[in-house]
Amino acid sequence: MSDEEAAIRIACVVLKMRVKFMNGWKEVCPRIRLLNTGPTTRRNFPFRDSEGRAGVGTLVGMPGYKEFSADTSDERLKDMGVL
């Protein structure tokens, strides 16, 4: 097989895989993630480890996020508090 033929075969395989990949996205519905507004809280608490040593830990509370698909109905988005 010549170098030119090998390059053409590789190009055909790459093109075929690229077309498969791009067509695969037609079936996928994108997801949207919105961060919730709200304060981040921190609380220190004492603890003892398995050997009895004392320590102080920190518990961090975060407001989280809302995630939904791009084709979610307006009614559902209102129920979630997004609209």
| Span between termini | 62 Å
Number of strands: 4
- What is the strand arrangement across the widest sheet? 1-4
Largest sheet, in brief, is: 2 strands, antiparallel
Overall helicity: 25-40%
* Total number of distinct structural domains: 1
The percentage of residues in β strands lies in 25-35%
In sequence order, what are the helices and strands, one letter per element? HEEEEH
The helix tally amounts to: 2
Overall 3D shape: flat
Rg, Cα atoms, Å: 26 Å
Which structural class fits the helix and strand makeup?
Answer: alpha+beta
Regions with pLDDT < 50 over 5+ consecutive residues?
Answer: none
Mean pLDDT: 89
Structural summary, described in words:
- Helices cover 35% and strands 31% of the residues.
- The chain has helices spanning 3-24, 74-80, and strands at residues 31-35, 41-48, 54-61, 65-69.
- The strands form 2 sheets. It has a two-stranded antiparallel sheet with strand order 1-4. Strands 2-3 form a two-stranded antiparallel sheet.
- It has 2 helices and 4 strands; from the N terminus they run αββββα.
- The chain is flat and about 75 Å long.
- 0% of the residues are buried.
Keywords:
single chain; 83 residues; alpha+beta; two-stranded antiparallel sheet; two-stranded antiparallel ribbon; 4 strands; 31% strand; flat
Give a nutshell description of this structure:
By secondary structure, the protein is an alpha+beta fold. The chain is built from 2 helices and 4 strands. It has helices at 3-24, 74-80, and strands at residues 31-35, 41-48, 54-61, 65-69.
